Amino acid sequence: MAKIIVVTSGKGGVGKTTSSAAIGTGLALAGHKTVIVDFDIGLRNLDLIMGCERRVVYDFVNVINGEANLKQTLIKDKRTDNLFILPASQTRDKDALTREGVEKVLNELAKDFDFIICDSPAGIESGAMMALYFADEAVVVTNPEVSSVRDSDRIIGMLSSKSRRAEQGLEGIKEHLLLTRYNPERVEKGEMLSVEDVKEILAIELIGVIPESQAVLNASNSGQPVILDTESDAGQAYLDTIKRLLGEQVPFRFLTVEKKSFIKRIFGG
Amino acid sequence: MSLLDYFRSTKKNTASTAKERLQIIVAHERKRRNGPDYLPQLERDILEVIRKYVDIPADQIAVSLEQRGDQISVLELNVTFPDDKR
Lengths: 269, 86
Hints:
The structure holds two protein chains of two kinds. Chain A has 13 helices and eight strands. By secondary structure, chain A is an alpha/beta fold. In chain A, helix 1 (16-29) crosses helix 12 (233-245). By secondary structure, chain B is an alpha+beta fold. The mean pLDDT of chain B is 79. The interface between A and B is medium-sized, with 24 and 19 residues. Chain B: InterPro entries: MinE (IPR005527), MinE_sf (IPR036707).
């Protein structure tokens, strides 16, 4: 039975698509057959981050409307085995996703895949609600910044009241906190909320901390999920996150400032 | 802490301000979220009625619904009147 994981945040620009790409790729690398579904109807971007933008023929809405089947629509990733992408449509019709349509497609994917990653759009409108409705687990992507934390808290509220599991009285969605764009230097200076601060406010289990990193922009520039950049801090932090998602106990890295030179230690900076 | 930090750190750091503000707003919003859907509208309606008689700002009224045990819910209404309007 496939596990459905929604990657969500409420606020835009915090790293949902980057994280969806990294998590999907990481799970596939670990040998699990995985599909990443772009729920951002109208503003398709997962294809760019995954570097398959020129291979999109049909999309999610075509499948729902019966204009194409899944086999024609799914894009097989060229770098990673076991990995597929279901691109979003660029229609401006926001209501193109119906609950019945989404359910039908997810059920069909569930026959074939181990993991279905739902890349949610920002906001709390129908697209975001649709992305989280069928989820078994949720990765709540949060930046250590006031508006992101507040929006994450609202999304956590929705996960526990507006999902299929909530409505049917099943066991709740398993919620994970993924803190991204973390800057230990600014935290040490008292300019940024710390991991502990955010954990205390949101009160959900921490699955990963991704440091603010040049590697993320480099990865998106070249259409390659950052998790494949195994030399980079962000890539390694995502690899750790995947291990935790699969139930392994892994210590957290990149939470403190790299050791400084003697001169720096005296004069700060 | 380095020497320079010692001379620099006169201001309260902004991260702790952020944390305090978040704790307050999040607690407030959670309370509202867990209440019934009609509560905000009820709050607005009550405010309108009171405003017919006394001019009070919107933040001087608080409506909360508290669950006490299985059987009883208590609707609590808290209105602060300005001094000169009494």
